[in-house]
Amino acid sequence: MKDLKEINSIYFDVLKEIGNIGAGNAATSLARLLNSKISMQVPKVELLNFSDLAGIIAGEEETVVGILIEVTEDITGSMMFFLQMDSAKHLVNKLVPPSDDTEGVFSEMELSALKEIGNIITGAYLSALSGLTNLKVGASIPYLCIDMAAAILSVPAIEFGMFGDEALLIENQLEDEVLINGYFILLPDPDSYDKILGSLGIHI
């Protein structure tokens, strides 16, 4: 079992490729869902201290939409996707009529649409991960949370802190009339790092 700090440049390149393919898959899938042309900027991929993630995703008091799934099968761990509130509202309003609510709370129909968007986006990354490694990758039902980023990240931070203090952050910028900011975090269990590398014939 390796500490996350042992990740070398080759492995980081592999993770970046997963991020690039996943973002492309997500843009294509969202375009189909929304029946709209979506352009994608090159994702920004960074390995960061877990404690720094919340501040990059949003301001300290800013509410965001967080989607969490558990990764299962050959690779285990967690996957999270965050959308800033204005981006989430834009995507949802492309699928369902805007609600009359003025407090920023999503209606039941909007929450259902958000979960579908979350399914598509996280599925796009899982497909990239599976396709690149030829490993079987499954996922739990997405868990949706609307809160401050630090609050959403606090639960996985406790579990993840047992293994290391760095995580992979992929920042996506999609454009569909407006700029859509999304943040993807991959948290494989330590043993899964070896499986990912081994599937590619890479040994550290």
Automatic annotation (TrEMBL):
Keywords: Chemotaxis, Hydrolase. GO terms for molecular function: hydrolase activity. Residues 13-46, 109-137 form the CheC-like protein domain. GO terms for biological process: chemotaxis. InterPro entries: CheC, CheC-like_sf, CheZ_family_phosphatases. It comes from the Bacteria. Gene3D superfamilies: CheC-like. This is Chemotaxis protein CheC.
